[in-house]
Specification:
Layout lengths: L2 H12 L8 E3 L7 E5 L3 E5 L8 H13 L7 E5 L4 E5 L6 H4 L5 H21 L12 H19 L6 H18 L5 E3 L8 E3 L9 E3 L6 E3 L1 H9 L8 H15 L3 H28 L10 H12 L5 H8 L9
Antiparallel strand pairs: 1-2, 2-3, 3-5, 4-5, 6-9, 7-8
Helix pairs in contact: 4-7, 4-8, 5-6, 5-9, 6-9, 7-9, 9-10
Length: 326
């Protein structure tokens, strides 16, 4: 039993929370750990020394509560030690609960929540004023993981500083081309593994939101791209098109504009994911994410077909990476 777990047990004891039926929950790709307790309570272990923050989680939960959306209720927060007690939303995770009969309905519920987040963000700008912006520099810092961990570490190919600068300039040109409106709360990991179906009479509250501690102020189309082009559960083209039209019909956004932003954010996100999944394998010894690599490659190749990424397509093709050859 490690020291961190002993710390957690002491924290729970001080909170007078029974650990009799404590069960560890399968963790995600982060350093956070979760434990299911009695009385619909979860304990999150987010060690500060590993760069995790429970204060950010509680801050975003507060914003989502003010939007009248389903984020877990916060029972207690220990910022110093990195522990938080929160409401347990249960096991009806979208990815495990989806079937042929409910698939469209669940995705539409998720889209309705994104639309509502956008509306509430514009109505409550002051509540988001302390959030950092999901600007190009942050997007680039994520994207460079593709070079650092996939190209250089996994493929053992050295990329010159000149080529890295070229990659930066190509990505920035595409970003400036789409002119995103960074005015909406972006949860950043909005996909079927992070949405939980809840019993509630209000439709929007039927979508339980988790794993939102990295939220920023950015374009709503980042989360839409995360949902519609998710490596864990890829949609076919007809499904994606129907859901995209569902979003357009409600919001009256310009179809071509929305499509281009989704192209950009999906490519950027999947380049990052390709780097992260290989980092998880090489650095952390976590191999289970490799099953998602074929879908990741497919999304990258598909988005490279957009005229927005003509230069990026050439940049990648020059490297002759077989998995990314169109």
């Amino acid at each position: 039993m490690d020291n961190r777990f002993n710390q957690l047990l002491l924290y729970l004891e001080k909170q007078k929370i029974s650990t009799k039926n404590l069960v560890a929950i399968k963790s995600d790709a982060s350093f956070r750990k979760y434990y299911r307790l009695e009385n619909n309570i979860l304990a999150m272990d987010a060690a500060p020394e590993k760069g995790e923050s429970v204060s950010k989680f509680s801050e975003i939960a507060r914003i989502l509560h003010s939007f009248n959306l389903s984020a877990p209720k916060i029972i207690d927060v220990n910022n110093k030690e990195g522990f938080i007690l929160l409401e347990d939303f249960g096991d009806k995770v979208f990815s495990k609960h989806i079937n042929k009969e409910n698939k469209k309905d669940l995705y539409k519920k998720a889209i309705d929540v994104l639309i509502d987040i956008k509306i509430k963000s514009h109505q409550n700008k002051s509540s988001l004023s302390k959030l950092a912006t999901y600007d190009f520099e942050e997007l680039y810092r994520e994207s460079i993981l593709f070079i650092d961990w996939f190209i250089e570490q996994k493929l053992d190919m050295q990329i010159s500083d000149e080529k890295k600068t070229e990659f930066y300039q190509i990505l920035k040109k595409a970003f400036l081309n789409i002119k995103p409106r960074n005015d909406t709360l972006v949860l950043r990991d909005y996909h079927v593994d992070n949405l939980i179906l809840k019993d509630h009479k209000e439709p929007l509250k039927q979508v339980g939101l988790i794993d939102f501690q990295d939220a920023l102020l950015g374009s709503t189309f980042y989360d839409l791209a995360s949902l519609l082009e998710d490596v864990r559960m890829p949609l076919n083209e007809n499904e994606k098109e129907e859901l995209l039209k569902y979003y357009i019909n409600i919001t009256n956004e310009n179809y071509e504009m929305v499509l281009r932003e989704i192209n950009f954010f999906s490519l950027q996100r999947n380049l990052k994911i390709l780097g992260i999944f290989n980092r998880l394998l090489i650095r952390d010894g976590k191999a289970r994410y490799l099953e998602y690599l074929p879908a990741t490659f497919n999304f990258i190749k598909s988005n490279l077909k957009s005229s927005l990424f003509f230069d990026m397509k050439n940049w990648i093709e020059e490297l002759q990476i077989k998995e990314l050859q169109l």
